[in-house]
Amino acid sequence: MPSSDPLPPKENAIFRKILKCYEMKQYKNGLKLSKQILTNPKYTEHGETLAMKGLTLNCLGRKEEAYDHVRRGLRNDLRSHVCWHVYGLLQRSDKKYDEAIKCYRNALKWEKDNIQILRDLSLLQIQMGDLEGYRETRHQLFKLRPSQHASWIGFAMSYHLLNDFEMANSILETFRTSQSVESFDYKHSEFLLYQNQVIQESGDLDKAFKHLEEHQGQILDKIAVKETMGKISLKLKYFDKTVSIFMDLIRRNPDNSEYFKLYLEARQITDAESIINFYNEMSKEYPSSLCVKRLPLDVATGNVFEELITEYLKRNLRKGVPPLFVNIRSLYRDSQKVATIEKLTLEFVANLNSTGHFTKDDSSNGIPQEPASALLWTYYYLAQHYDYLKNTVKALEYVNLAIEHTPTLIELFVIKGKIYKHAGDVEEAYKWLDEAQSLDTADRYINSKCAKYMLRANKIKEAEEMCAKFTRDGVSAMENLNEMQCMWFQTESAMAYQRMNQLGEALKKCHEIERHFSEIIEDQFDFHTYCVRKMTLRSYVDLLRLETRLRDHPFYFKAAKCAIEVYIKLFDEPLKESSTAEEANLENLSPAELKKMRNKQRKAKKKAEVESAQAAKAEKKKEQYNKSKQQQNQDNGDPEAPLLDELIPEKLERTEDPLGKAIEFLKPLQLLSKNLIETHLMTFEVYSRKNKILIMLKALKKAYAIDPESAALHKCLIKFTKLLEQTLKDADEIMKQVLLHEITNELPILQKKPVEINEDFLSRHKHRADALIAAAEIYYDQSDDNQSKAIDLLKSAFKLGDMSLEHALLAYNLLFVEGKLGELNQEVKLEFKKLFNDKYPFVPCFKLESL
Amino acid sequence: MASVEVEVEELNGDDQQDKKQKKHNSGAADLERVTDFQEEAELSNAIANAAQLFVEKGNREAEAKLAKEVELQKIHIKKADIDRIVLELEVTTSIAEKALRENKGDIVEALKFLLRD
């Protein structure tokens, strides 16, 4: 279709050059050329040229001018697809994808078969996850350009993403037969592996296997072929083939435990003895393989285990392998093995101290003495061993022996800190990590560990200073860590601020993390064209699938949980305006007190002035830094993404709609972390404050399906039954029908009375500490008369084997912090203090003097 | 048609002057020069015929989808019911509408349906 406002040939040629310049990123030339057209009095208002000039300006970071030009261009030529397309591109660069899609659609109205616009539209659709729309657009493109590679690949992929494997494969197969293959054709190799992935996902493993067999000559990633063939043939029970494939792979890499596992599965060997024999033979063939020594420990028992583990421990302790404990920690599931290991290592210590050998046999057999470090690493091992078994006293004893032996080994101080952390003393823990860190300030790992321990102890400023040793000069560490998307630091800071009740600061950190996730999703944009062009389709599809579930990442969960809790707290107890709070206090003060206060205020003001002067200085520095950064970005021709609102703690904690903000964090969890019970319990808490009974019910249903016996869920169920009674009285017909249907068919437990539910729950879980604590809270909540009953329940929890530090802290909060069991008399208080302190002597708040 | 695919023409940019500055950062500089422009590889004509088959299948799918939507549009639903669902479950209007249509306009069934998924 011809342009609605055509230029004469000479100008038109220039216009084409502008387009070319834009594509080749020669923006300055583009501007010069557009000036040539626009200075011609006849064409000063030529729409398409104005639009292109705007687009070029946008690429140079001159956003306002860009919008100006593009809008003016569009107004002058509303029927031009170029103007609409450009407006769409501009919106896209501002991440306003919905708006951009609308613009593209308008452009397509005037030029429905424009390949470039359709391509841009398809990019946005895949970016937004609109798979149906993506398929339609790819269909359109395929119809228009069936002779292009990308048309076929994109069309096939659009079906693959919608799980129509048959159709995807038949498109790929037709495409494949039309290809002439050169030697070492990497793209073709990737293509074949992608096609194979599609066939595998369709479930037709036979076909997938044959496909690989037939084309393996053309696939360059030999290991991928072998591994895939091995796994498929195992699933198809072609055992002979599988055995030879994995033997081959083991030959290539005898340290991949997966190969051994699948090999044994194919050999169908299951009894421990044969497995151990097999590994024994393998160790002759591959003497340097670690796998063949470690893997038999998983299946061996009794004397055989003792024999094997003795050798294994000796070898590693002799060499001084620091991660030895981590390496065999999985064996600790078996209490027999734990006992054997403990017996052996204690013997080692005794013998090393007396004769310098691990065992008596060693010394009588004339084996040379072990190196002095052997004793050190054995102490180190035992410290970790006892720490794992929660025996803090013994763990400390051994780590101290080790430190006495060699006072300069960093690992020892790290473990000492860890032992204190596990015992509940975060303060002491961070001090030991600080000690460790001071022994090697150039080690980034230990530096980060130390910072993390500091955050656990609420020492945010110290942690920031610690990290500053490794962040860029001239910028505050906090900012630099944000820029580097250092999320472990930010989640831990958020939680530290939350513990210290600095809610605005906590929210700031949570929002920063949320922005990282948005940014990561943004960043996939470049891959949509790149991966199709380079044929790295397997990784591309993996990436697309990753992006749709990105926010199921633990970092997001932690940040969201923290933010939701804080927003709920702000809803329950909104902050007062800071100034009014002060004035209210003034009214009921005596003159003397007033004078005192004025003095104080004057001092504070002076101090504040000094501080603000310093702050202003810092601000100036920051500004300069920002400016130089912007300058840098412009030089690179990549204008900074649209500037987001600055996150200001004071504003965040005074939001008008805390629940709405909480829901923003909650939504991705509901979508992606629906197999975590906490997601649904948080949903319940948020919506109970909005009185949305159906959403609460839905949350309970989902939580119940995950773990019907959860103590936290139990509390919610009780809360809900109470609410239900009232609601059913007032509800209209619709509500009644829905609620009654749900209760009878989906959650019959809700038909019972709260008291009954609690009794039942308790009788089912007499052996669970968390159940006893939850039940106790509910008892007292039901009636003040139940206080002694509730207290007895808590006491009995201490006698249970599964009582852990977390449970103790829960009980402590209930009794002394939240006061949810009412006023306690002195005698009861003392009794509990003793209980807490006896069981967890290292926890600071349990110490007798601090209670 | 002012297509974006036009023939290549050499243009000497003035962005060469700062090349020296970027010596240390040559990787990033190279990346900056990457454009989305690409010559499309053409396939033989024979395959274009095979393509027709898939085009038709795509067309048929689009038609079937349209037919289903038309069918759903025929069902009568009340605006008040949509609003009620949105109020109770805080879902978007389009989800509420779809749930109502798929349950023949019965609000109780629609609510139960939305509580299930």
Automatic annotation (TrEMBL), chain A:
<feature type="repeat" description="TPR">
    <location>
        <begin position="81"/>
        <end position="114"/>
    </location>
</feature>
<dbReference type="GO" id="GO:0031415">
    <property type="term" value="C:NatA complex"/>
</dbReference>
<protein>
    <submittedName>
        <fullName>Uncharacterized protein</fullName>
    </submittedName>
</protein>
<dbReference type="Pfam" id="PF12569">
    <property type="entry name" value="NatA_aux_su"/>
</dbReference>
<feature type="repeat" description="TPR">
    <location>
        <begin position="410"/>
        <end position="443"/>
    </location>
</feature>
<feature type="region of interest" description="Disordered">
    <location>
        <begin position="592"/>
        <end position="642"/>
    </location>
</feature>
<keyword id="KW-0802">TPR repeat</keyword>
<dbReference type="InterPro" id="IPR019734">
    <property type="entry name" value="TPR_rpt"/>
</dbReference>
<keyword id="KW-0677">Repeat</keyword>
<feature type="compositionally biased region" description="Basic and acidic residues">
    <location>
        <begin position="617"/>
        <end position="626"/>
    </location>
</feature>
<dbReference type="InterPro" id="IPR021183">
    <property type="entry name" value="NatA_aux_su"/>
</dbReference>
<feature type="compositionally biased region" description="Basic residues">
    <location>
        <begin position="597"/>
        <end position="606"/>
    </location>
</feature>
<dbReference type="InterPro" id="IPR011990">
    <property type="entry name" value="TPR-like_helical_dom_sf"/>
</dbReference>
UniProtKB/TrEMBL annotation, chain B:
<feature type="domain" description="Nascent polypeptide-associated complex subunit alpha-like UBA">
    <location>
        <begin position="75"/>
        <end position="115"/>
    </location>
</feature>
<dbReference type="InterPro" id="IPR052617">
    <property type="entry name" value="Huntingtin-int_K"/>
</dbReference>
<feature type="compositionally biased region" description="Acidic residues">
    <location>
        <begin position="1"/>
        <end position="15"/>
    </location>
</feature>
<dbReference type="InterPro" id="IPR038922">
    <property type="entry name" value="HYPK_UBA"/>
</dbReference>
<dbReference type="GO" id="GO:0043066">
    <property type="term" value="P:negative regulation of apoptotic process"/>
</dbReference>
<dbReference type="GO" id="GO:0050821">
    <property type="term" value="P:protein stabilization"/>
</dbReference>
<dbReference type="InterPro" id="IPR044034">
    <property type="entry name" value="NAC-like_UBA"/>
</dbReference>
<dbReference type="Pfam" id="PF19026">
    <property type="entry name" value="UBA_HYPK"/>
</dbReference>
<feature type="region of interest" description="Disordered">
    <location>
        <begin position="1"/>
        <end position="33"/>
    </location>
</feature>
<protein>
    <recommendedName>
        <fullName>Nascent polypeptide-associated complex subunit alpha-like UBA domain-containing protein</fullName>
    </recommendedName>
</protein>
